[in-house]
Amino acid sequence: MASPRLETYCCPNRDAATQLVMNFQPEVFCGVCIGSASISLLLTILQLLPKKGQSPRKMPKASSSSTILLLISICDILGGLGMIFRSSVWLGFPGFIANISVVNGTDVWPSTFCVGSAMWIQLLYSAGFWWLFCYAVDSYLVVRRSAGLSTIVLYHMMTWGLAVMLCVEGIALLYYPSLSSCENGLEHAIPHYITTYAPLLLVLVANPILFRRTVSAVASLLKGRQGIYTENERRLGTEIQMRFFKIMLVFVICWSSNIINETLLFYLEMQPDINEMPLKDIRSAALITWIIMGVLNPMQGFLLTLAFYGWTGWRVDLKWRKREIPWESMSSSTVGENAYPSPVNYQSNIHDSKKISTTDSQQTDEAISMLSEGNTSSDERLTRSSPIYQGW
């Protein structure tokens, strides 16, 4: 699981709240993390592999949405691998891990492993949070026709730059002036927790607002495409709205336990003695949410692929096939079949207006298709309602 407590545990003079959760059934907790991360890892890869009997996912050429979705899955996969590796070493070499608690010890490798593995997990999941935020921004810009494949460079700079900067800054402040001196006061720990949870809270607050504005813009696009708002358009708008809802639901389910757990642990840190009897229920709640974090945090990768694409099935097709761009195939086949010679007496301005109208409709269909990528029924319904499909 991804928690700033992982880095805090690397301090030999760690606080009592961190000691409480990290020493609570460590073998069981590491086993839970390995099991959950392994299942999520396998199912996520299975979801992303092409399937037999299914056409490639339909995406327009100038779309950064599919790239962002893939990068989110990659961050979850790499973060899950970090959890599996860290928990496996924790279970397989208990004597090696025990040296972390030694103050002024001569062996630096246990502390190096502790800090390195914790930073790896934290960095990858923080990058995943930033990519989720970029996905919400990109979805809004797409319907406003202000985004394209070129914007992915800006997203890379923002995501990896902010993730690395916040992670390094938080770790530097936590371990200043040395690893053995951290956690002597909250002035070391609080900046680290802020830099860790800032992207998570940003997604929780900003993404619903951006998704809501995107859904409103989609409705306006669908109404303006043909001047009417048919049942197909209404159903397509509802499916896009449901997709955004599923994404936020998965995010809240997987990470709300982290916020609850951190709140409880900070409350315990404020107490003179966390072992007092009146605090028994709070200690129990903190330990329960700690185990829940070990289950839900790694499962984000698989659950997000369900929110993005739905269940794609078990039948994997490992044969390489050329990905077809639907807009090129439609314009070359359906338009070619339904096109008729223009009468000589057609006015050029009428022809130009129809051409512009068709181009605008194509752009609208492409924008909607970016948001409904991975949803076969939506793509088919969009194609049937498209003026290109109707031979306009």
UniProtKB/TrEMBL annotation:
- Organism domain of life: Eukaryota
Which compartments does it reside in? Answer: Apical cell membrane; Lysosome membrane; Melanosome membrane
- Keywords carried by this UniProt record: Cell membrane, G-protein coupled receptor, Glycoprotein, Lysosome, Membrane, Receptor, Transducer, Transmembrane, Transmembrane helix
Under what name is this protein listed?
Answer: G-protein coupled receptor 143
* GO BP: melanosome organization; regulation of calcium-mediated signaling
Q: What SUPFAM superfamilies has UniProt attached to this entry?
A: Family A G protein-coupled receptor-like (SSF81321)
**Which family, according to UniProt?**
Belongs to the G-protein coupled receptor OA family.
Gene3D superfamilies in the record, alphabetically?
A: Rhodopsin 7-helix transmembrane proteins
Q: Where is this region: Disordered?
A: 371-392
Pfam family of this protein, just one?
Ocular_alb
- Which organism's genome codes for this protein? Promerops cafer
Does the record carry Transmembrane as a key word?
A: yes
Major localization class: membrane
GO CC annotations on file = apical plasma membrane; lysosomal membrane; melanosome membrane
